[in-house]
Design a protein that fits this description.
single chain, mainly alpha, Growth Hormone, Chain: A, 16 helices, globular
């Protein structure tokens, strides 16, 4: 498959957003994606806050922050272990059925949390165990969902559909943390029961999709197919460069994992302020996603991606020092920095996802998405773990500042290591 063209030859205008609205199965997929993302945000807020609250009963701030980061590690371990089987599963079996099984697993995990919290026997080991089970379900969910989306729209609509997919995630990420903060302020159990209902809606809308979700299976054993996926990612330097840039930049810049610590002990804004802080990145991301959905990027894609990652790192540094830069309005400066951070991340994610899906054939999408998901999982979940470890050594402010500076350094290094990615032009 050829890489995206770098010339400036004229091309036909892309289809409008109205064309996307005529795709029934894609709309159902979008609703499922939104409700599932909304549920995941509420669950994440509740688990992070509950872990920190339980840990602070007997532990210091640094030790409690470390345990919040351990939730990310617990969720990442199964993603890492199951990456190759999950990608091969998405390229061999009906992707819709795989998603339904994953939703069933997520429903079970959140019911365990809801009952445990309601009955009063939630604990640090239980939260870590549920994080592991949730990660196992997400390991198979990510490649199947990523590979299913392009099957539901014509190829010409794919860049616009990717922008709308990101919009679903980001709008849910605005409402989810705020709703999660309000629910947690009443009781984490209410947050978990709400999450259960949302996962149920997501499963039902996925079930209603009529399109054939069975991919064309390439010949060969499971191991052969898994090796093909790894070889493809390694040989396609645009794909490998884009995925690995996201890995290392977000791995270092995982400041959002420290939000419970900042909300409670640094900015001292409580669970409601925690929900506002959690919504900050999604507010910026949604603004950028709306802009991209209306006017997708058509040229200089690589430069846009690197600019997004660099801005992400700079905004992380501002967030880390918000209470020192502007003490009287530290909360709102922190929210503003997080909004810029989220918008920059949205820009880089949009370019990465579009580049990867355009250059990847359908029969390979599940395996490539699985490799991508483990990189993303490493950047998010391991980023949370890294932030917890560094917070124990440098304190939460030092950990966030360390991550922002690290993301800036990674941007410069990757711009030199992957010139093809830097020069990638058209997303067509």
């Amino acid at each position: 498959m050829a890489e995206p063209a770098s010339d400036t030859a004229p091309s036909a205008p892309p289809p409008s957003a109205r064309a996307l609205l005529k795709e029934r199965d894609y709309l159902l997929f979008w609703v499922s994606r939104w409700t599932g993302s909304f549920a995941a945000q509420i669950q994440s807020v509740a688990m992070g806050w509950q872990m920190y609250a339980i840990a602070r009963l007997t532990r210091s701030v640094a030790e409690s922050a470390f345990l919040v980061g351990m939730i990310g590690l617990a969720a990442f371990v199964p993603v890492f272990l199951l990456t190759l089987p999950a990608g091969e599963t998405a390229d061999r079996h009906d992707r819709k059925k795989v998603l339904l099984i994953c939703f069933a697993g997520e429903i079970v995990t959140v019911l365990i949390l809801a009952v445990a919290t309601w009955q009063g026997w939630a604990s640090v080991p239980l939260l870590l165990a549920v994080g592991f089970l949730f990660g196992a379900a997400r390991a198979f969910f990510a490649p199947a969902s990523t590979a299913l989306g392009p099957m539901l729209v014509p190829r010409a609509l794919l860049p616009r559909a990717i922008a709308w997919n990101s919009l679903a995630w980001q709008t849910a990420s605005i409402i989810g943390p705020a709703a999660g903060g309000l629910l947690v302020a009443t009781s984490p159990a209410y947050a978990y029961f709400t999450t259960f209902g949302l996962y149920l809606v997501a499963a039902l809308t996925t079930f209603a999709i009529r399109a054939n979700a069975q991919p064309t299976v390439n010949p060969g054993s499971r191991w052969t197919l898994m090796k093909e996926g790894l070889a493809y990612v390694w040989n396609q330097k645009i794909v490998f460069g884009a995925i690995s840039l996201d890995l290392f930049a977000v791995l270092l810049g995982g400041a959002t994992a420290l939000l419970p610590v900042f909300a409670r002990d640094i900015l001292q804004v409580g669970p409601q302020g925690f929900g506002i802080l959690r919504s900050g990145p999604a507010i910026g991301a949604t603004i950028v996603a709306l802009s991209l959905a209306a006017r997708p990027i058509h040229s200089r894609a690589g430069l846009f991606m690197f600019a997004g990652v660099a801005t992400f790192g700079a905004a992380t540094c501002v967030f880390a020092l918000a209470d020192r830069i502007w003490p009287e309005h530290a909360l709102w400066l922190a929210v503003g920095a997080l909004a810029v951070l989220g918008g920059a991340d949205m820009l880089s994610v949009y370019v990465r996802q579009t580049l990867v899906q355009l250059v990847t054939p359908d029969a390979m999408r599940g395996r490539v998405a699985a490799v991508s998901s483990v990189f993303i999982g490493a950047s998010n979940e391991l980023g949370e773990f890294e932030s917890g470890v560094v917070a124990r050594l440098l304190g939460p402010v030092g950990a966030a500042l360390f991550g922002g500076v690290g993301a800036l350094i990674v941007t410069g290094v990757w711009a030199g290591l992957f010139p093809a990615l830097r020069k990638a032009d058209r997303l067509e």
